[in-house]
Amino acid sequence: MTLKVGDKAPAFKLQDQDGRAVSLADYKGKKLLLYFYPKADTSGCTKQACSIRDAEPDLSQAGIAAVGISPDKPDKQKKFDTKYGLGFPLLSDEDNAVAKKYGVWGEKKMYGKTYEGIIRSSFLIDEAGKIVHAWYKVSPADTVPNVKKALG
């Protein structure tokens, strides 16, 4: 199951790197870049997170908040945030329940091995909680350019 433009974004409530509960409802009335990444502090995930951090002034000017979600525990998310000065919520989806709702948990292949994991994806959600854009199997380098292109 994948989400399409116009779909209602699935609700979530997860713990961030500081132990706070963060929900989709917290962003009602705002645009949200919600992205899913496989594992904190790995090369691709670091590249992606840092590009979002670096684009924060542009995103903020466009009225867009950013939130990342991975299966990592909050303490690992905290170390990742601190190490790279990310400054936006990193949510812990340890049981992958939210990833499954967004259609980003599935079969992957690496080095000839097949396994289940996060399919790197990002979503632009509007002020009413609807999916404006959905990018599945996104490259770490393409998250921010995709959003900028979507904004025109």
From TrEMBL:
Q: What protein am I looking at?
A: thioredoxin-dependent peroxiredoxin
- For the keyword Disulfide bond, the answer is yes
Q: Which residues form the Thioredoxin domain?
A: 3-152
- Sorted alphabetically, which Gene3D superfamilies does this protein's record hold? Glutaredoxin
Xref: InterPro entries:
AhpC/TSA, Peroxiredoxin_AhpC-typ, Peroxiredoxin_BCP/PrxQ, Thioredoxin-like_sf, Thioredoxin_domain
Subunit-structure text:
Monomer.
Which superkingdom is the protein from?
Bacteria
